[in-house]
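ligand=adenosine-5-diphosphoribose
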Amino acid sequence: MARKKIALIGAGMIGGTLAHIAAQKELGDVVLFDIAEGIPEGKGLDIAESSPIDGYDSRLKGTQDYKDIAGADVCIVTAGVARKPGMSRDDLLGINLKVMKSVGEGIKAHAPNALVICITNPLDAMVWALQKFSGLPENKVLGMAGILDSARFRYFLAEEFDVSVESVTAFVLGGHGDTMVPLVRYSTVAGIPLPDLVEMGWTSQDKIDAIVERTRKGGGEIVGLLKTGSAYYAPAASAIQMAESYIKDKKLVVPCAAKLSGQYGLKDLYVGVPIVLGADGCERIVEVKFNPDEKEMFDNSVAAVKELMEACVKLDPSLG
Ligand code: APR
């Protein structure tokens, strides 16, 4: 059986990390595409030179030519610019929208059967635009945000409770911005919901509130520390989990930015919701029940996403 082919569109900080993890996990052969000459080639060669030590046989190739992504099974898109301190994800909109157009056309021409995972920010608007520009089926174009936001939430909770990160489950829904919705009621330690853990005296409501707030600003916390760019290890790990669930048809239930067609009373927009991710891409959207507070937070988050989509249409009326 031939190896799978993973195309990484953008070979910057996240792209390079994606290449390293994908190769180490032998998810397939890896093509790094970037407009910057030498960067994808250099990163590909450097990673390949580590393969005899770590013992994996994925091949890596760097390129500036879309022809090299031909027939890719998975395309992970990080092309564009990242945040610097003082910038919100939304500040990236104008530049990254143009990048999505060229990337969408490249994927449409050379890898129309791939699962496309978008990471470029502002995420929900960019994945929406990328799906339109590429013309690929909606179930095959997804955005990576919820797994990352949930991982941050899970990590902070595991620290608070001094338990394994593996014992903590969490869902963060909504748009990938400061309005995201960490769902406390659906977050658990070994199946015990957080509100019960507060009652059991494991933590206080104030501490949970502070963790929710830290989760919402998790990306900004990293930007503030790094100063020269944004997070890349955890975003890359999150997208690899999505790629793996697709390639192996694992049908993980994970929060992703998915195109809604009536679920949650919404249509024609991408927002973070739990999905079943298998060989058909987004196989099912899970509609969880919100209480009134959660519904209000979700609606706020959706309104922020819609605002960004409208800004995109102003910049590129072909999206309207
Ligand atoms: N086509 C292909 N690659 C491009 C294009 C393009 N049109 N425009 C820019 N790039 C490349 C850049 O040359 C750079 O190598 O995209 C890469 C982006 O890498 P970084 O600047 O290191 O950014 P990174 O940290 O990887 O984040 C990428 O993901 O999380 C989001 O907000 C983040 O939007 C940003 C994206």
